[in-house]
Amino acid sequence: MHLKPSAKRSCLISFTHDTDIVIKASVVEPPENGKANTALIKLLSNTLKINKQDILIKSGLISRNKIIQITNLTEECLINKLLQFVPKLTFF
After folding, report:
1. At what angle do helices 35-48 and 75-83 cross, to 10 degrees?
2. Does 88 map to a domain?
3. How far apart are CA 28 and CA 57, in angstroms?
4. For the segment 10-45, what is each residue's pLDDT rounded down to a tens digit?
5. SS3 of residue 35 by DSSP
6. Which residue from 11, 14, 25, 87 has the least number of CB within 10 angstroms?
7. Would residue 25 count as lying in a domain?
């Protein structure tokens, strides 16, 4: 996952799924005191329609590059949910 904090709007920007699923996202919150990380979890929860408790930032708490673990959601289901945003997302 690549996160752009302090952006003009919070949204998913793009994703790819070769060997791993890589998502680019932006949030309006600044990278201070975990605000951007909290906003990222909220964005993923609302966009993917999953519980916040099912999303864990495994590494990258103070980095733009993060490894996210999502429980109770298969890889295939995650890809299908991301594909619902194809008109809004750019693939890289």
Report:
1. 90
2. no
3. 18
4. 999 888 888 888 899 999 999 999 999 999 999 999
5. helix
6. 87
7. yes
What Å distances lie between residue 72 and 7, 16, 55, 69, 78, CA to CA? 29, 21, 9, 10, 10
The pTM for the full model equals 0.88
Question: Tokens 């590059």 — which residue?
Answer: 65
**Per the structure block, which two tokens stand in for 27?**
């949030």
Helix (H, G, I), strand (E, B) or coil at 88: coil
Is 89 domain-assigned? no
Per the CB < 8 A criterion, the answer to whether 47 and 23 are in contact is no
Angle among Cα 89, 36, 53 to the nearest 5 degrees reads 85
Containing structural domain, residue 46:
2-83
